[in-house]
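So, could you explain this one?
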Amino acid sequence: MSRSIILASRSPRRIALLKQIGIECSVMPADIDENPLLGEHPCDYVQRLAIEKAKTIYETCRLALPEQLVLAADTTVAIHDEILGKPIDDAEAIAMLKKLSGATHLVHTAVAVCGYNRTLCMLNTTQVDMMPLTDEIIADYIASGEHQDKAGSYGIQGLAGTWIQRIEGSYTGVMGLPLYEAAQLLHQIKV
């Protein structure tokens, strides 16, 4: 049984989390359109993207590496079913953080594995309670640059971790790769 996979992501957090459970990976990010479909629910959105990323990279490598498994994940933050993806600029990040300030939101992360003529996917949803944020806290965070390339404009594993009053669900899911679901999928496909 293989303990090496292709990760369809360049996320350093996902790479580190896979290493934490003894899975080595080569990195091959999938270049797909990540825009939500009109009226798409956040859960459906992340599952669609995770599956599409995994299948895209699997098809790219299938002939050269037919036994190689591909793992992909996608994470989004949602508040009242509104998808808060990665901010395009600082102004959008500020607007997202103001929406999340003092509110409960959901972090949805889907994990997909593609290989051996199968594609499997699991979804993890975690409820996150964030403290109220002042304009000064938000400005300092934006100045740190940590908000860039993060769904909802924050990373729980960094400075914003001090804002999180409570989570109900998976800490690693909020980081971008729920380890329980990833391990279950890899086990099902015999890694």
Notes: Helices lie at 12-20, 42-61, 90-100, 135-144, 171-175, 179-188. Residues 43 and 108 are 6 Å apart (CA to CA).
